[in-house]
Amino acid sequence: MSLTSRKQTQNPANPVYPIMFAIGACHLLNDTLQAVIPAMFPVLEKERGLSFTQLGYIFFALNMVASVLQPVVGYFSDRKPMPYALPIGMTFSLIGMAGLAIAPSYWLILLSVIILGLGSAVFHPEGSRVSFLAAGSKRGLSQSIYQVGGNTGQALAPLISAFVLVPLGQKGAAIFIAVAALGIFILTKISAWYKQTLELEKINNRKKVILSSIGDLTKKQIGIALALLLTIIFARSFYVTNVTSFYIFYLMNDYGLKIEQGQLYIFLFMALGAAGTFFGGPMADRIGRKNVIVLSLLVPLPLCVLLPHVPIWAVGLLLVLIGFFIMLSFTVTVIYAQELVPSKIGTMAGLTVGLAFGMGAIGAVVIGRMMDTIGIFPTMVIASFLPFIGLVGLALPKDQKIMAPSAE
Asked: pLDDT per residue over 363-393, tens digit each?
């Protein structure tokens, strides 16, 4: 049985919910594989004796490959969509995960995560395009389902660390080969629908386009808006990397928590971040893209500054609030960029999500180096001011509500 009907595929106003949820589930599987890397940091520090700087370079290798290649893949898929690139990308992830489980040295670990990053770079732009094609009139909802899948996968990192990798060690990564295999199976089914949809568009001489809510802007205004948007992504990604990859060491060092206990706090942050990702898209459909971005910028600022100084009983509450609000704009920044340049759906998805990976990669190296040089607590204090950089988003062009397209 196909994932959707021919009638649904032909009508651009009808959301294709089975595809929306299927690609969101595959995004969860893909980012679960990526989440294994930071989840393994405490294990690699203990088993391999790696420094914080070396851990930072591992994260850098994973995310920089994904960052650099995502816009490239997006650009070429805008020119010529590649439906079956999705399962091929997941196959690279499977190979990378297998290598990670058995890698005996630091350099082979780096090679494995590079292969894993390559798979992610192929998946994300094409996955975002599938989400767009299946969205119909529900752009915000569809993108939220897609992105919350990824963020939920990332949120599993602390649980993977506490309940799989700490007990089993590095070899525990082999369990996630099965996750990649499941992803390949589902993505092969999605690719068949994707190919059929493209063929119908060609037959009907109709190409699906975005109705922009931002209005007419000059090339200079679009360039400035993109620069502001990318600055927001830089600040958000840098801070999120600090919490998800290195805050565990602060919890262990300053609060005396065990790995398993500390990872539960990180899970709170990431789980509420996934919730924020989901609610951000539909909220933006109702109150506007820029309004959600601004809300996501302003609310976390004082909470981030307070976080390194509060007692342990307040840590969980602050992480919950920061995680929810700081990730509220994750989906929205992707949609906003696509509406700024509606003719380049894949490129803008690759640029925005890819930049998030890239900034996280650079952040991991910088933060790891700082922790080795000036210590864990001073690094956490400095990192707490990163979200202030995102205030440049107040200067973004304001968008307006648009009407959903009518069924043909």
From this structure: 778 888 898 899 999 999 999 998 898 888 8
User: What amino acid is encoded at 129 in this protein?
Assistant: R
Judge contact between 28 and 187, C-beta under 8 A: no
Residue pair 340/348 in contact by the 8 Å Cβ criterion: yes
Report yes or no: 145 and 278 within 8 Å, Cβ to Cβ. Answer: yes
Q: List, for residues 151-192, the tens digit of each pLDDT value.
A: 788 788 778 877 888 788 888 888 999 999 999 999 999 999
Helix intervals (H) in 375-407:
376-383
Task: Identify residue 98 by its one-letter amino acid code.
Answer: A
Name residue, tokens 């990730």.
327
**How far is it, in rounded angstroms, from Cα 35 to Cα 125?**
19
**What's the CA gap between 40 and 333, in Å, rounded?**
29
Beta-carbon contacts of residue 17 (< 8 Å; ≥ 6 apart): 134
The token pair at 26 is 């595959």
- Residue showing tokens 């210590």: 375
The one-character DSSP state at 172 is: G
Mind giving me the DSSP string for 16-30? Answer: -HHHHHHHHHHHHHH
Alpha-carbon span 233 to 330, nearest angstrom = 8
pLDDT in tens, 290-313: 889 989 989 999 999 999 999 999
